[in-house]
Structures are given as C-alpha cells and as structure tokens.
Description:
Blueprint: H1 5-29, H2 46-67, H3 75-101, H4 106-130, H5 139-157
Helix pairs in contact: 1-2, 1-4, 2-3, 2-5, 3-4, 3-5
Amino acid sequence: MKMSLNKWQISGFVFTGVFGVLLHFLYEWTKGSLLVAPFSAVNESIWEHMKLLFFPIFVFALIEYRKIGANYENFWCVKLIGTLVGIAIIPFLFYFYTGAFGISSDWFNIAIFFIAAGVTYYLETRLMNSGFSICKSEIIPFAALCAMALAFVVLTFVHPELPLFKEPQK
C-alpha cells in the first residue's frame, strides 16, 4: 500500500525534526570535522539554525520525489516555496522575540525550529493538494534549491560580517 501525501509530509516533519536536532550537535560530537561542517551547526548563529532546517528538508524532498514526486507536477515549485517560508520563519521569529522581550531562550529557539518545520510541511501539503504552481518549469525551482544548498555550504566557511552569521549575545 502506498503512503499518501499527508503521511509523507508527516514523515518529512519527523525526519526534519530528528535530523535537525542531530545536526545541531554533530559538529561538536565530531570535534569540528570539516566533513560535517557544511551540513551541521558550527556555531549558534541564526544562519546555522536555518541550515539545520534546510538540509533535512532538502534531503527528505529528494527521497520523497523518488517515491511520489512524479505524481505532482508542482512538486519542486512547492518544495522551494515551503523551504523559503520555513527558513525565513527562523530569523523572523528569533529577531522578533529577542527584540520585543530582550531575551534569548534556548527552549524558545528549539520551538522556533519545530514551528518552522511544521509550517513548511503544512504549507507544502496544502499547496500540493491544491495544484498551486507559479513555476513554468520544475527545473528552475530544483536548481534554486541546489543553489541554496551550495550557498549554505560556502557561507559556512566564508561569510559576511552580518548579525545573521554571528552568535547571539546572551
């Protein structure tokens, strides 16, 4: 029996949650391995937390595409939209609550990650089921996701001096 889109998306949320949390600690566990640095958090910056969401979502999308993606002509378009919304939620909520309340809370930062993952998969499910697509071709959104992956890797090692890339002050 084939899994429905809803079950795939719930599985994606679980996959993203588990692997996002593991990737948070992997760099430290491997004592700073350069092999895991591109995909795991190398510090506590907002950028690194966005990366923790991006890579599990992207990897799961590759798996999901092989299983059910061909059934949805809007698959990569929706995945790009969902991913962009999800990774945008992280800095938005972080800077909103730290600016509004002047505090940074580890438990709330963790909640933000799961909120972003949940919104991503919920939005994707709704958009795929609706047939929504603004893309003329599925190649362009897939290429955009690959470019995002490359940007996350490159900017792990060489990044601008912006607050997004710096560890927040406690």
